[in-house]
Amino acid sequence: MKKRILYACLLGIIVMLAPALCAAESDDTLGPDLRIMSFNIMHPDWSRVPVKGRDEIVSEILCSYHPDVAAIQEAGAKWHKALKPLLVDTGLYAQACRQCNAEGFIYCCTTFLYDPHTLRLVEENVLDLDPGDAARVLSAAVFERISDGARFVVTNTHPAPREQPEDHRRNMAGLTALISDLRTRYAGLPLIMAGDFNTPEQDGYYPELMEKAGVRDAKYEADTLVRGCSTFFGWGSAPDPGSADLCVDHIFVGPGVGVRRFEAVLGRDIERASDHIPIIADIYFIPDQTDGR
Known about the structure:
The chain has helices at 2-26, 44-47, 54-65, 77-88, 165-185, 205-213, 218-221; strands at 34-40, 69-73, 94-96, 111-114, 119-128, 137-145, 151-157, 191-196, 216-217, 224-227, 249-253, 257-264, 279-285. By secondary structure, the protein is of the alpha+beta class.
């Protein structure tokens, strides 16, 4: 299985580099693309579905699409221990925002995997949406692209579900406040926000968050929209490519970030990996258009 994952990674690198090289040839000022993924991999303790078997599917998906940064949600201790030998110990990925702040917990459920061959980790922070709740945080990382030294900020979050309305409201309010602080702290750096926001597009929190955070949905900014279907579908159910009612996972981009391609990923035994599907956005930086406030 490790050989299959390695082969998938090599193929993913080739597939990813081809359009990036073509894009760089067409406009040298934009630089190469970066691929961002957001993926809720379903906590085994909350869902009562073991990690065993699912870890190999998740690893193959990550290797096949080979994001530079993968924002992972619901990554409990069992996920950390399962993915480490498959992805981290092999040198394919490194991890950011690994440790949480909550007493009695070691691993952060809202973490990052990033490609250490293309990116360097500059800074990492795990900020609480709900103090004491290891699952409700805003993870933030500053990365530097090795090829040109370009720096950018990626955040990852997972607010409480709408079925817990008071918790959801409090988490969303805390999220917008923290993002405002980050924009001030890292003024001048491009911002990408990823995560399972538990907020579909028809919910009032969706436009409110974008307005207050000063971001746009990468799906609707993309030059090429491959697929934009619902991202939550329930464990064991086949995702419906024709449904867009439950787009709760999002990638948002701030000023100075363009989006070449967006895709909600289907296939690859995705329904046996999680109750969410991953989303990917191929982004690029636009000179002199970042948030300089």
